[in-house]
């Protein structure tokens, strides 16, 4: 069995959709079950990116220890924008598994995210000069990989320059079996191909209808959505924590009952920090739970990993059968209760889905 440990749920879903499209039976969990499901690929969405570093390490170690002895081939999924407790989680995995070293490739050349001469670029711009420098929890303070990950070398973690898919293939060609692969979707794709797993089906674009949809825009990198879906934005006074979230709930419920479709977003940006981010996504999850429990939409679409995890946890959905990819990185899954949810990384385009 292949086991992917991902630090956020949309990144987990992206890889789950990828292996599902290769014809592999794929399951995804947001919390560890007493018994592992029977499948070809198990994807664990840990949400450690939203935890403190100490909690992230403890969670990673607990999962790795439960997997020990099951003969799993492990892949550690991290963010292609370098967010999260990356080195701490790699060190945790190396300390409790049989892996003695790691190759870390966060670059996604297919998305114009590359490492050239030790500098990380997004669309040709050093990452610390992009919107990622204003991320509320993990701002990109430098584009130099040696500054971002100064302990990598002494930990036995190799971070190669990568500007193409061929560079990825060269970097992992003939790596010893005790080498843990860590990184983003392009690395995982190349690794799968090397094991003989290739995409069997093209993407299954499915334009979401204009009714019976709840679209949750929970990322600071959110892309524009269709204008025919009415938007309910978090009121400024709720954002500033001077009014209760019930104010937003009432507005959102009234709009959905009138239009049978809604997009939820948080347009304000003047507050930053982890505590603010946790509070905001918690309130978003409260609104989503209220809408879903009252109206159970045909389409629940959530953008942004931390928000998606919080919403699904609030709804009590923690185990999913992966249906497939709707467009690159946009993946639909069925919860054990039959509800279908579609997840998308915040910085990715909607493609044909919207």
3D architecture notes:
There is one protein chain. The protein is 32% helix and 22% strand. With 354 residues, the chain is an alpha/beta fold. Strand 6 and strand 7 form a beta hairpin. Helix 1 (9-20) packs parallel to helix 7 (185-194). The radius of gyration is 20 Å and the shape is globular. The mean pLDDT is 90.
Helix content: 25-40%
Overall pLDDT metric:
90
Percentage beta strand? 15-25%
Largest sheet: number of strands, sense, barrel closure: 14 strands, mixed
Low-confidence stretches: none
What separation lies between the terminal Cα atoms? 34 Å
> Over the alpha carbons, how many angstroms does the gyration radius reach?
20 Å
Q: What is the β-strand count?
A: 17
What global shape is seen? globular
Order of helices and strands: EHEEHEHEEEEHHEHEHEEHHEHEHEEE
In the sheet with the most strands, the strands line up as: 9-5-10-4-1-3-2-15-16-17-14-11-13-12
Q: What structural category do the secondary elements indicate? A: alpha/beta
Number of helices: 11
């Amino acid at each position: 069995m292949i086991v992917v440990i991902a630090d956020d749920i949309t990144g987990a879903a992206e890889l789950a959709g990828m292996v599902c499209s290769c014809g592999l039976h794929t399951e995804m969990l947001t919390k560890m079950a007493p018994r592992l499901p029977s499948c070809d690929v198990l994807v664990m969405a840990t949400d450690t990116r939203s935890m403190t570093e100490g909690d992230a390490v403890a969670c990673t170690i607990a999962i790795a220890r439960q997997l020990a002895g099951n003969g799993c081939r492990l892949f550690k999924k991290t963010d292609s924008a370098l967010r999260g407790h990356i080195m701490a989680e790699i060190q945790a995995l190396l300390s409790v598994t049989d892996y003695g070293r790691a190759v870390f490739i966060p670059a996604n050349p297919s998305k114009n995210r590359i490492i050239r001469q030790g500098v990380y670029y997004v669309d040709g711009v050093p990452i610390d000069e992009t919107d990622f420098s204003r991320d509320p929890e993990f701002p990109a303070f430098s584009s130099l990989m040696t500054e971002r990950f100064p302990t990598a070398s002494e930990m036995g973690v190799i971070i190669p320059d990568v500007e193409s898919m061929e560079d990825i293939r060269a970097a992992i060609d003939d790596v010893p079996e005790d080498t843990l692969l860590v990184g983003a979707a392009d690395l995982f794709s190349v690794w799968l191909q090397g094991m003989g797993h290739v995409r069997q089906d093209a993407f299954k674009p499915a334009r979401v209808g204009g009714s019976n949809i709840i679209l949750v825009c929970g990322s600071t990198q959110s892309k524009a959505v269709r204008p025919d879906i009415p938007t309910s934005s978090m009121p400024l006074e709720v954002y500033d924590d001077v009014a209760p979230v019930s104010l937003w709930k009432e507005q959102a419920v009234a709009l959905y009952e009138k239009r049978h479709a809604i997009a939820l977003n948080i347009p304000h940006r003047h507050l930053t920090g982890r505590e603010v981010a946790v509070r905001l996504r918690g309130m978003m999850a409260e609104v989503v739970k209220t809408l879903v429990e009252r109206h159970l939409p045909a389409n629940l679409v959530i953008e942004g990993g931390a928000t998606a995890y919080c919403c699904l946890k609030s709804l009590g959905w923690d185990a999913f059968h992966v249906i497939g990819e709707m467009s690159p990185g946009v993946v639909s899954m069925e919860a054990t209760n039959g509800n279908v949810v579609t997840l998308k990384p915040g910085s990715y385009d909607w493609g044909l889905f919207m």
